[in-house]
Structures
1.
Amino acid sequence: MLSFDIRTLESTAAQVAGDLQADDPIWNAADPRPLEAVHVEGRFSSAGNGRFYFSGRFSGSVTLECRKCLTEVTRDVAEDAHFLFAPTDDPTTEDDPDVFTYDPGAHQLDIKPAVREGWLLSVPAFVDCREDCKGLCLTCGADLNNGTCNCEPVAADARWDSLRQTRNEFQA
């Protein structure tokens, strides 16, 4: 359960143990969606003056493309999470990107948008299928992890010679 009754939270903290499903409408088309549900655990409590604080952890896994060879790679994602919720009419939180707002007239507070944002910030931007990934041939697109291709080597651009020479001097 990731939606809570505000009236209950004002007097008693709630233990959170729920899942944000991979097919939930909260996800946008361009989001790196989890393979299965993102599991959320923690504690949700009142922080005074209509504010609420969540402290916990979320975890799941995601499939991304290797940045070098485009092979699908699965990675686990797990992060500690700390979310502050305040009513939209709270002037002290105006334009604060670290505070999630809610309608002060609402009876339910949903933490799914905060979990989604935490997930998006925790998913790696780039992954490699393996440490020594050779990538794709720039000419024919062959996967160089499976062996060499039959392309002719490309001659180096002479305009970069002085930079190569400087690099070699520093490496020596």
2.
Amino acid sequence: MNLIYRKHAIMRMFERGITDEDIRSVLLFGEVIIEYANDKPYPSRLILGWLNNNPVHVLIAENDDGDSVVITAYQPDPMLWENDFKRKKS
């Protein structure tokens, strides 16, 4: 899997202690929870994965060359997300 990291993603990963290995694990074993078909320049999707029993969201898009572009990664805030971390609270 060829990953391209946006500058924003690298900065946030560093701030949040999320590694390249963590991203790859989420992408391999995680679950797509939201698809953003109208995102530009490429459609993106939000993937939920679990690292050491902690939820992690990775926002990723596929470019025209088939590369996976990592846009950001974060640990979802339980105050903003339902208990399963798949849906935002209303």
3.
Amino acid sequence: MSSDAVTIIDAADMGRRRFLTGSTIVVGAIGAGFVAVPFLGSWMPSKKALAAGAPVEADIAKLDMGQAIKVEWRGKSVIIVRRSEKVLETLTEVESKLADPNSENTAQQPEYALNQHRSINSEYLILLSWCTHLGCSPTFAPEVRADWQGGFICPCHGSKFDMAGRVHKGMPAPTNMIVPPHQYLSDTRILIGVDQGAQV
């Protein structure tokens, strides 16, 4: 009888040990999960970082002729200008005043904007509102005067750009304003940050 009692006690003890071992493993796994999730999450870019590099949509439906709007992309302002036929005609008239009228510095615009009007659709100009001299934000100055056909003037050091963002000769800015990657989602919506023809 005493040997049976010993056997029963050992079997019960083994059951308890298995239960405690299993419970410890489960609790340990849950604890490891609580530690691992924030740790692995810290490797992921923040929502702010993701948004900073994300493409941005611009609605140009209400943009009247001669007007401009600005949108933020990657922490920089992008200016979108709606140009009239009369403004587009001035692009050839000012070429003799420009440092790079044919946009030969191809790093300043995507290939699809490598044309006289520096855009996909000649009516709309899309530029980083950023002077290539020291990064100030040029002022949109569309008013035509005797010596000025309209464009952009940098308030910091006076660099002048025409209505296609091409720099005038003898200015502190060494190159034309930058045309960011963009594509048209429709006649009235532009996606800035993704090249024309690329999958969205």
